[in-house]
Amino acid sequence: MLDLIVLTHPDSDHITGLVPVLERYQVDMIIFREMDVTSEVYDYWLQLLGTEGATVYQGEAGLRLMLDEGLEMIVLHPGTRLLEDANNNSIVTLLTYGQVSVLLPGDIEAEVEHRLVAEGVPLESTVLKAAHHGSCSSTTQEFLDAVNPEVVVISVGADNRFGHPCAEVLERLERLPVYRTDEQGVVEIISDGAQVWVETGR
Predict the structure, then answer these.
(1) What percentage of residues in the chain have a pLDDT greater than 70?
(2) What does the alpha-carbon distance between residue 134 and residue 130 come to, in Å, rounded to a whole number?
């Protein structure tokens, strides 16, 4: 049984791994944003949603879910109107537990990072999952300053053909503890609501 899964956007590298999750596990809640996308895997995802029995929420800014006592997830982006670029329509969530928060920005790029900062969206977080696998298109300095994280996690495939994570992004993160899935495998964030511990697969 899984309490919640979030499909940030229907790009193949994000949706493909979630399909077997719906096939194998009972899921209580699902957050995703329905989009005008044509792909076999997305069509199959929509079919599975109809048979899963989960409560499905459309990922739109302002959605708040109390997942447990003191544990809240807030959707910060996108708003009611979607943008042209799929990455910039990624669902951005803030997970808060006590004094600890984790910002999960999907694959948003500089345009949306700038917009969130300019609009004064509450971004400050203990942990930041770097957007778009550490791509040069994201984790701008103004966004990083607004988040002011203590820990950064980069979810990125080993020897990927895109060259992620970007050297410029790593330079901006050089003064922070950075955990990379290509180097350390699974990265687990553990918290009691006051402190954060990080455990890695290797």
Answers:
(1) 100
(2) 6
The Cα-based distances of 60 to 8, 78, 188 in angstroms read: 11, 5, 27
Range 33-65 burial, b when 16+ CB lie within 10 A, else e = beeeeeeeebeebeebbeebebeebebebeeeb
What does R_g of the chain's alpha carbons equal in angstroms? Answer: 16
CB burial of residue 1 (10 Å; 0-12, 13-18, 19+): exposed
Give me the count of residues in the chain. Answer: 202
Dihedral class, residue 62 (left if φ above 0, else alpha if ψ from -120 to 50, else beta): left
**For residue 156, which of 172, 126, 179 has the smallest C-alpha distance?**
179
Q: Give 196's strand partners.
A: 191
pTM over 0.85: yes
Per the prediction, the chain carries an average pLDDT of: 96
